[in-house]
Design the sequence.
């Protein structure tokens, strides 16, 4: 059994990725490409990436930079900085390469890399997937993968924030009760 490649070594520049993909194509290996924010990794992400990997030989994951995530998701995102998000994604055994991208869409990166298969979640209509034309023009395919029901970073963040509000309310209520008892005992 070979040792797994360290996560940080899987994170590459766009230029290095192009070189790796060309080498993979020379060896007749199918390259699968997907992209996303991957802000708080959850089981839905893991299952999605595992399914994507099964479509080919190499899985490339393009991760949005912090600035790109803010443009898409708003000023309070991302929760996790881009270097950490990239490393966590790269640590997954099904992922072969991770590349950061800051453009509004991954289309320029997809056009440069020319994957054999472009994958997105089934929440995307195939005709709306960025890079579809570039992949199909080069002879590749575009696929969608079903999402894991109930798994969503946005839902997870809302749940965490709700728990935080409840804890704040509890602390505030507990402090008020403590102060009231102190005042009663001071008399």
Sequence:
């Amino acid at each position: 059994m070979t040792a797994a490649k360290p996560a940080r070594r899987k994170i590459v520049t766009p230029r290095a990725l192009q070189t790796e993909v060309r080498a993979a194509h020379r060896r007749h290996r199918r390259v699968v490409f997907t992209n996303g924010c991957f802000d708080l990794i959850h089981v839905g992400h893991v299952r999605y990436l595992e399914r994507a990997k099964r479509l080919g030989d190499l899985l490339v994951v393009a991760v949005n930079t912090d600035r790109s995530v803010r443009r898409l998701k708003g000023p309070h995102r991302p929760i996790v900085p881009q270097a950490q998000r990239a490393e966590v994604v790269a640590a997954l055994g099904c992922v072969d390469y991770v590349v950061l991208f800051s453009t509004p869409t991954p289309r320029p990166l997809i056009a440069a890399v020319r994957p054999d298969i472009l994958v997105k979640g089934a929440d995307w209509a195939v005709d709306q997937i960025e890079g579809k034309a570039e992949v199909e023009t080069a002879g590749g395919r575009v696929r969608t993968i079903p999402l894991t029901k109930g798994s969503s970073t946005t839902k997870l963040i809302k749940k965490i924030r709700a728990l935080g509000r409840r804890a704040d309310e509890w602390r505030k209520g507990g402090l008020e009760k403590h102060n009231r008892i102190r005042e009663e005992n001071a008399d």
The chain has two domains: 7-147, 152-187. The mean pLDDT is 92.
